[in-house]
Write a structure and sequence with these properties.
heterotrimer; A alpha+beta; B mainly alpha; C mainly alpha; A: alpha+beta; Immunoglobulin-like; Cytochrome Bc1 Complex, Chain D, domain 2; 3 domains; five-stranded mixed sheet; three-stranded mixed sheet; 9 helices; 12 strands; 40% helix; B: mainly alpha; Cytochrome C Oxidase, Chain A; two-stranded antiparallel sheet; 21 helices; 2 strands; 64% helix; disordered C terminus; binds heme-A; binds dinuclear copper ion; binds copper (II) ion
Chain lengths: 335, 626, 190
C-alpha cells in the first residue's frame, strides 16, 4: 500500500512536469495559418497523454529497480503473481478508448482542414528539381516567390515536372507532396504577416537541401502593389525577360549567375568563352551552341558535369522566343 | 590447409567470376545482335545476379542440393570439418544452427559498425550549417547507405537470434531444414557486398525508401542496392519458413503452445510477417530494377510514343509506395518483435518472478503482427493518395498502440514486487524499455494524420524511429548477447566493462533521440546535407553529434569486452542466471547435439517464485553435471 | 552420425515438415503474384491491351492439360507404375514447353514491347514472372524424370515427385488468375 501511494504521487508529479515541458508553444515554430492551429491543438492534448504514460512506465520501472532491488545474500524469490485478468482488461480498454478518441478527433480535424472558403485564391505551384514556381491565374502573373494575402484562404494546386517534392512551410504546419503524374491540392489561410520559407520536404535528389522559396504574407495594399509591378514587367527588354524566365523555368536552380559552380556550369562569363567538353574537344560558346545546349543538353556535355541531369524538355515547354530571350540573358552575363 | 578451403574465399572468387561472366555474356549477346559494344545497365543486372549465384556455388551452399538432383544421397555433415581447424567452420557452409546463428550475429555486427561509422561521418557534417567536407551527392549516398545497411543489420540480427535460440528453447537439436538455413545465411553475404559496393559505383540518392521515380533516375549504385535488398529479402523469407516449420513440428514432448518460452512466440509472430510481406518489397524493388534496366514503365508517369501507339495508360508513382510500405511497415515489427521477446524473456529471470500475464504477452505479439498488415498507408498521409483512405489508416495505426501497451504494462507488473538484480543484461533490458517507450509514444502523433502533415519527413520522425529501433532491437540484441554469452563461449563477459557500456550508451541514446525530435519540431527536414541556421537548432544538432559519438565509443567498449572475454574471461557455470529455460540445463558451451535426449516439459516456463516447480526435466544422460 | 539411411518413420516425420514448408512457400509466393495482380488493376484499371484472344485460350488449355498429366504421373509414382509415371511426366514437360513457347514466341512477339507504357510493363511483368516459374517447373520435372528413370522412387518414398507435382499445379492455378486479368477483363482502348 505504501509503495502504491508513493508511486501514484510520483506519477502525478512527473506527468505534470513532463506535460508542461511538452507544451507546444515551446516546441513548435510560430503558427501562421488557420489550418495549422489544429496541429497545435492536437499537440497540446498529446502533451499530457504522452506525459502520463511516460510517467506511469518510467516511474514504476525506476521505483521497482530501486525499492525491490535484491539485497546481497537474499535468495528468496519475488512475489508469486502470475497475472490479473481485471488489470489486463483495464489496460486494454483504457488505451483503446484514448486512441479511438484521438483517431476520431483527427478525422474531424482532417475534414476541417479541407474546408473551402468562397473567396479562396488559387495558386498553381510547379515544382521541379530544385525550384518552385507560383502562378496566380486570377492576375495572370507568375513568380518564383510566394506572396500571399493575410487572411485570405489559398488553394494550392500542385504539379511536378520530374520527381516527388513536398510543399512545406513549417509556420503553416501542413505539408503536401507534389507528385508527378497527378495533381494534388492543399488549402491554407495565412494569419500572420511576415516572411517564411517553403522548404521541400521530400528527398528529390542532389540539391533537395536547397529547394527553398521565399514566402511573404502581406496586407492588401502591399499585395496589390506587388501584383501591379509584376504585371508591368511584361514590357521588359529581351535580356530582362530572359532573366525572369531563367527563374520561372528553374534554370537558376542549377546555374549560378555569379560564377560559382553549382549543379551545372555558371552562366557568368559563359558567352564567348571556350568550353572543354567531356570528350576533350573545345567549343566556342556562341548562340548556336547555347541553343543546342538548351534543346539537347546531352549532345555536348561539359567536362566535369554529369550528363542526364539537365532536363531535355525545354524544346517543348519553352517557345522559340523564350529561348531567344534566355540566350540574350546569358549573353548579357558576358564579362 | 589453403585459403581456398575457406568457403567464404571460394564464394568471393565465385562472385567475381560470376559477375564478370554475366556481364561478358550479356555484352557478347548484344554484339552478336549487331548492337554496338557497350555495357548497359541490363548487362550489369545480369552480372550481379550471376555473381550472387557464383558466390553461392563457390561457398558450397548449393552442393548438397545439386547432388540430390543427381540422385546422390548426402549425409548431413555435422561437427567440425575433418582435417581442418574448427574455427574454419565459421567461414564456410556449416549446418549447425548454432554456427549459423553466430555467423548471422557477426555479420549483423559488422553491418552495424559500418553503418554506424557512416552515421558518425555525416553527423560531423551536420553539426554546423553549410557544407564542410561532404557534397550533396556524397551526403545523400552515405545517408541512404547508413539507412539501408542498418535495416539489413537488423534483419540479419533477427536471423541471428531466431536461429541460435529457437531450436534450443523448444528443446530440439536443430532447425528442420539445415541446408536451407545455411543457404539463407550465405545469401546475405553477396547481398551485403552489393550494398557496400553501391557507394563506389556512382552512389545513389534516394534514402532507404527508394521512392520512384527518383530511384528510376538515380545513378548506377541504386541498381546494386535494389538487388542487394532483394537477396536479403530472399534470405528473410527462407529463414522464416524454416522457423515456422521448426516451431510447429519440432517442439519437445510436453511443450504445448502456452508453455513455449515467450521469445519463441515473438519469433513465430515475426516469421509470419517476414515470410509473406517480404515478397512485396522484393517485387517493388524488382519493378524499379526492371524500369531502370529495360524501361518497363511501372512507375514513371511519362508516356513514350510506343505507349501512345498501343493506347496504354502511363505508370503511377504511388503504386510504388503502396507496394513498398505494404512490406516496410510490417517490417518494423519484424525488427522489434524478437527484441520485445528478449525483454519479456529476461525480465522474469532477473526479477525472480513469473512473467505477468504470459498469455496476453504471447498473444499481443500475434496481434501486433497481424494488425501491422493494415496500417501501411500512414507513411503516405501527405502523398496525395485517395483522401478518404487517410481516416481508416489513421484508425488502424492508432489501434497498434493497444497490444504494444499490453506488453509495457505486463513488463512493469513483472518488475513490481520482484527481487531485482541489475547485471548487465538486465540493465540493457531496462534501458530498452525506457527507450522503446519514447519510440512508441512518439508514434501516435504521426499516426493522427493531421499532425503527421506537420511531422512527416522531419527529424521528429527520425527521432521516432531511432528510438523505436534502438529500444526494440539494438538494446535487446545487446542484452541477448550479454545474457547468452556464457552459453555460447563458456566464459563470462566482464561485468565492469558491461556496465560502463550501458552507462555511456543509454544517456547517449536518450540525448540523441530527444534532440532529433526537438530539431524536427523546429523545422529540420530529413535527408538534407545543409541546414538553415535561421531555425534555431544549433544546440540540438551539436547534441545529436555528441550523443552519436558517445554511442560509438560505447560500442567499441562492447566489442572489446566480447573479444577479450571470449578468449580470457572467467569460465562460466552452465546456468549463471538460474534460468529455467531448457538451454540453460545443458553444459556450456553447448555440445554439438545440444540435447542428447529430448527434454520433457512438465511445468510452466516462468514459475521463478516456486523454486520446487519443474519446467524442464532432462533425461539423466544429458543433464549438466554441476 | 550418419543419416544416409533414414528409417521410414524418420522419413515420414521429415515428409510432414517438407509438406508444410512447401505450402508456406506457396503462401509466400501468393503475395508475390498477388502484388502483380494488384499492380495490374492499379495501372490498367478498366482497360487492357489488344491481345490475340485465340492464343490466350490455346496456351491456357495447354497448361491445364499439362496439369492433368502431372496428376497421372503422381498416380503412377504412388503405384510404382513406372511407364505411366515416366510417360505422363514427359508429356507434362512437353506441354509446359509448348506453353512457354506460346508465351515467349507468340505473345511476346506481338506489337506490344516491354517499354510501351503500363501495358508493356505489366504484360511482360506478369507473364515473365509466371514463365520463370513454369521454366523452373520444367527443370524440376526433368530432374525428377532423370531420377525416376533410374528407379529412385518407391511407393513410400517419392517426395521429389510429390513436390514437383504440387508446384506444377500451383503454378497452373496462378495462371488461372492471371489469364482473365490479362486477356479478358476490361476493354481495349480505341
Ligand atoms: C522499430 C521500428 C518501429 C516501431 C516499433 C514503430 C512503431 C510505430 N510507428 Fe513508426 N516508423 C518507423 C519505425 C517504427 N515505428 C520507421 C523506420 C519510420 C520511418 C520510415 C521512413 O520514412 O524512413 C516510421 C514512421 C512512422 C510513421 C510515418 C511518419 C511519416 O513519415 O510521416 C508513422 C505514422 O503513423 C508511424 C507510427 C508508428 C506507430 C503508431 C507505432 C506504434 O507501433 C507504437 C506503439 C507503442 C506505443 C504507443 C507505446 C506503448 C503504449 C502504451 C504505453 C499504451 C498507451 C499509449 C497510448 C494510449 C498512446 N511511424
Ligand atoms: C538500427 C538502425 C539504426 C541505428 C542503430 C542508427 C544509428 C545512428 N543513426 Fe541512423 N538511421 C537509420 C537507422 C539507424 N540509425 C535509418 C533507417 C535511417 C533513415 C535513412 C533514410 O532516411 O533513408 C537513419 C537516418 C539517420 C539520420 C537522418 C539522416 C537524414 O535524414 O539526413 C541521422 C542523423 O543524425 C542518423 C544518425 C544516426 C546516428 C548518429 C547513429 C548512431 O547511434 C550510430 C552509432 C555508431 C555505431 C553504432 C557504430 C559503432 C562505432 C564505431 C564503428 C566506431 C566509432 C568511432 C569513434 C567513436 C571514433 N540516422
Ligand atoms: Cu524537391 Cu526535395
Ligand atoms: Cu509504419
Amino acid at each position: 500500500m505504501k509503495h502504491l501511494l508513493a508511486v501514484v504521487v510520483l506519477i502525478v508529479i512527473v506527468t505534470l512536469a513532463v506535460g508542461f515541458l511538452l507544451n507546444p508553444e515551446n516546441l513548435l515554430p510560430t503558427l501562421a495559418s488557420e489550418e495549422g492551429a489544429f496541429v497545435d491543438q492536437l499537440f497540446s492534448l498529446y502533451a499530457f497523454v504522452i506525459a502520463f504514460f511516460f510517467a506511469l512506465i518510467v516511474v514504476i520501472l525506476l521505483y521497482s529497480t530501486i525499492v525491490f532491488r535484491r539485497k546481497k545474500g537474499d535468495d528468496k524469490p519475488g512475489a508469486n503473481v502470475h497475472g490479473n485478468s481485471v488489470l489486463e482488461i483495464v489496460w486494454t480498454v483504457i488505451p483503446l478508448g484514448i486512441v479511438l478518441f484521438f483517431a476520431g478527433l483527427g478525422a474531424v480535424y482532417l475534414k476541417d482542414t479541407l474546408k473551402a472558403e468562397p473567396d479562396e485564391m488559387i495558386v498553381e505551384v510547379t515544382a521541379s528539381q530544385w525550384s518552385w514556381r507560383f502562378r496566380y491565374p486570377e492576375f495572370g502573373i507568375s513568380s518564383t516567390e510566394l506572396n500571399l494575402l493575410n487572411g485570405r484562404q489559398v488553394l494550392f494546386v500542385f504539379e511536378s515536372t520530374d520527381v516527388i517534392h513536398s510543399f512545406w512551410v513549417p509556420e503553416f504546419r501542413l505539408k503536401q507532396d507534389v507528385v508527378p503524374g497527378i495533381t494534388t491540392t492543399l488549402r491554407l489561410k495565412p494569419t500572420l504577416p511576415g516572411s517564411y520559407k517553403v522548404r521541400c520536404a521530400e528527398l528529390c535528389g542532389l540539391n533537395h537541401a536547397y529547394m527553398l522559396a521565399e514566402v511573404t504574407v502581406m496586407e492588401q495594399a502591399e499585395f496589390d502593389a506587388w501584383v501591379a509591378s509584376e504585371i508591368d514587367s511584361g514590357a521588359l527588354g529581351p535580356p530582362d525577360r530572359g532573366a525572369k524566365l531563367a527563374g520561372l523555368n528553374g534554370c537558376l536552380a542549377c546555374h549560378s549567375t555569379d560564377g560559382t559552380r553549382s549543379v551545372g556550369p555558371s552562366w557568368r562569363g559563359l558567352f564567348g568563352s571556350e568550353e572543354i567538353l567531356e570528350d576533350g574537344s573545345v567549343v566556342l560558346v556562341d548562340e548556336a551552341y547555347l541553343l543546342e545546349s538548351i534543346l539537347d543538353p546531352n549532345l555536348q556535355v561539359v567536362e566535369g558535369y554529369r550528363p542526364d541531369l539537365m532536363p531535355k524538355v525545354y524544346g517543348d515547354t519553352l517557345s522559340q522566343e523564350e529561348i531567344q530571350d534566355l540566350i540574350a540573358y546569358i549573353r548579357s552575363l558576358e564579362n | 590447409m589453403t585459403v581456398l578451403s575457406l568457403g567464404i574465399v571460394r564464394g568471393l572468387a565465385g562472385q567475381l567470376i560470376g559477375s564478370a561472366l554475366g556481364i561478358g555474356v550479356s555484352v557478347a549477346v548484344r554484339v552478336a545482335m549487331g548492337l554496338p559494344l557497350e555495357v548497359k545497365e541490363g548487362a550489369i543486372v545480369v552480372g550481379i545476379l550471376v555473381g550472387a549465384m557464383g558466390f553461392m556455388i563457390g561457398v558450397g551452399a548449393l552442393t548438397d542440393w545439386s547432388k540430390w538432383m543427381l540422385g546422390i544421397e548426402t549425409p548431413l555433415r555435422l561437427g567440425p570439418p575433418e582435417g581442418k581447424p574448427s574455427w574454419t567452420r565459421y567461414f564456410g557452409v556449416d549446418y549447425s544452427h548454432k554456427i549459423i546463428g553466430i555467423q548471422y550475429g557477426v555479420t549483423s555486427m559488422v553491418l552495424l559498425f559500418l553503418a554506424g561509422l557512416l552515421a558518425l561521418t555525416f553527423r560531423v557534417e551536420l553539426t554546423t550549417p553549410g557544407l564542410q567536407f561532404l557534397d550533396n551527392h556524397t551526403y545523400n549516398t552515405i545517408m541512404s547507405t547508413h539507412g539501408i545497411a542498418m535495416i539489413a543489420a537488423m534483419l540479419v540480427g533477427v536471423g541471428a537470434m531466431a536461429n541460435y535460440l529457437t531450436p534450443l528453447m523448444i528443446g530440439t537439436s536443430d532447425m528442420v531444414f539445415p541446408r536451407l538455413n545455411a543457404f539463407g545465411f550465405w545469401i546475405n553475404v553477396p547481398a551485403a557486398l552489393l550494398i557496400g559496393t553501391s557507394m563506389y559505383v556512382g552512389g545513389w540518392d534516394t534514402g532507404w525508401t527508394a521512392y520512384a521515380p527518383l530511384s528510376v533516375n538515380a545513378p548506377l549504385g541504386m541498381q546494386f542496392v535494389l538487388l542487394g535488398v532483394f537477396l536479403i529479402g530472399l534470405s528473410s523469407i527462407l529463414g522464416s519458413i524454416n522457423v515456422i516449420v521448426t516451431v510447429l513440428h519440432r517442439r519437445t514432448p510436453g511443450m504445448h503452445f502456452f508453455r513455449m518460452p515467450i521469445f519463441v512466440w515473438s519469433v513465430l509472430a515475426t516469421s509470419i510477417i517476414a515470410f509473406s510481406a517480404t515478397q512485396l518489397i522484393g517485387l517493388s524493388f524488382l519493378m524499379v530494377s526492371a524500369e531502370r534496366a529495360l524501361g518497363m514503365t511501372f512507375f514513371s508517369p511519362v508516356l513514350s510514343p510506343g505507349a501512345v501507339a498501343v493506347g496504354s495508360p502511363a505508370g503511377q508513382v504511388l503504386l510504388f509506395q503502396n507496394l513498398f510500405w505494404f512490406y516496410s511497415h510490417p517490417a518494423v515489427y519484424v525488427f522489434i518483435l524478437p527484441g520485445l521477446g528478449i525483454i519479456s524473456e529476461l525480465l522474469p529471470v532477473f526479477s525472480r518472478k513469473p512473467l505477468f500475464g504470459y498469455k496476453w504477452v504471447a498473444l499481443s505479439s500475434m496481434a501486433i503482427a497481424l494488425m501491422g498488415f493494415f496500417v501501411w498507408g500512414h507513411h503516405m498521409f501527405t502523398s496525395g493518395m485517395l483522401e478518404g483512405l487517410r481516416i481508416p489508416f489513421m484508425v488502424t495505426t492508432m489501434l497498434i498502440a493497444v497490444p504494444t501497451g499490453v506488453k509495457f504494462f505486463s513488463w512493469i507488473a513483472t518488475l513490481w514486487g520482484g527481487k531485482i538484480s541489475l547485471q548487465t543484461p538486465m540493465l540493457f533490458v531496462l534501458g530498452a524499455i525506457s527507450i522503446f517507450l519514447i519510440g512508441g509514444l512518439t508514434g501516435p502523433p504521426n499516426g493522427v494524420s493531421v499532425s503527421d502533415l506537420f511531422l512527416h519527413d522531419t527529424y521528429y520522425i527520425v527521432g521516432h524511429f531511432h528510438a523505436a529501433m534502438f529500444g526494440g532491437f539494438i538494446f535487446p540484441f545487446i542484452a541477448a548477447i550479454y545474457y547468452w554469452f556464457p552459453k555460447i563461449t563458456g566464459r563470462m563477459y566482464d561485468e565492469g566493462l558491461g556496465k560502463l557500456h550501458f552507462w555511456l550508451m543509454t544517456p547517449g541514446f536518450w540525448l540523441q533521440s530527444l534532440a532529433m525530435a526537438r530539431v524536427g519540431l523546429l523545422g529540420m527536414r530529413r535527408r538534407i546535407a545543409d541546414w538553415d541556421p535561421g531555425l534555431g537548432i544549433e544546440t540540438g544538432q551539436l547534441m545529436i553529434t555528441i550523443a552519436g559519438f558517445a554511442i560509438g565509443i560505447s560500442m567499441l567498449i562492447f566489442l572489446a569486452n566480447l573479444i577479450i572475454s571470449a578468449v580470457r574471461g572467467r569460465v562460466a557455470s552452465p546456468n549463471p542466471w538460474q534460468s529455467r529455460s531448457p538451454e540453460f540445463q545443458i553444459p556450456s558451451p553447448i555440445p554439438e547435439h545440444s540435447y542428447a535426449q529430448p527434454p520433457v516439459i512438465t511445468g510452466e516456463p516462468y514459475d521463478y517464485a516456486e523454486p520446487d516447480s519443474v519446467y524442464v526435466s532432462m533425461s539423466p544422460a544429458s543433464s549438466a553435471a554441476d | 552420425m550418419s543419416v544416409a539411411t533414414t528409417t521410414l518413420s524418420q522419413y515420414r516425420a521429415q515428409l510432414r515438415s517438407n509438406r508444410l514448408g512447401l505450402w508456406l512457400f506457396f503462401i509466400s509466393e501468393l503475395f508475390l503474384f498477388g502484388g502483380l495482380l494488384i499492380s495490374r488493376f492499379y495501372l490498367w484499371g478498366g482497360t487492357r491491351p489488344d491481345l490475340d484472344q485465340r492464343l490466350g485460350l490455346i496456351v491456357t488449355s495447354i497448361l491445364l492439360l499439362s496439369s492433368f498429366f502431372m496428376y497421372l504421373a503422381e498416380v503412377g509414382a504412388e503405384h510404382e507404375n513406372r511407364r505411366l509415371f515416366l510417360f505422363s511426366l514427359i508429356m507434362t514437360a512437353l506441354l509446359g514447353t509448348a506453353f512457354l513457347l506460346g508465351v515467349v514466341i507468340f505473345e511476346w512477339g506481338g506489337e506490344i514491347r516491354p517499354w510501351d507504357g503500363a501495358f508493356g510493363a505489366i504484360l511482360y511483368g506478369m507473364t515473365g514472372m509466371h514463365a520463370l516459374h513454369v521454366a523452373s517447373g520444367i527443370v524440376l520435372i526433368l530432374i525428377v524424370a532423370y531420377n525416376g528413370l533410374r528407379g529412385r522412387y518407391t511407393a513410400e518414398r517419392h517426395w521429389g515427385v510429390e513436390a514437383c507435382a504440387i508446384y506444377w499445379h500451383y503454378v497452373d492455378v496462378v495462371w488461372i488468375f492471371f489469364y482473365p486479368a490479362i486477356y479478358l477483363m476490361g476493354t481495349v482502348p480505341t
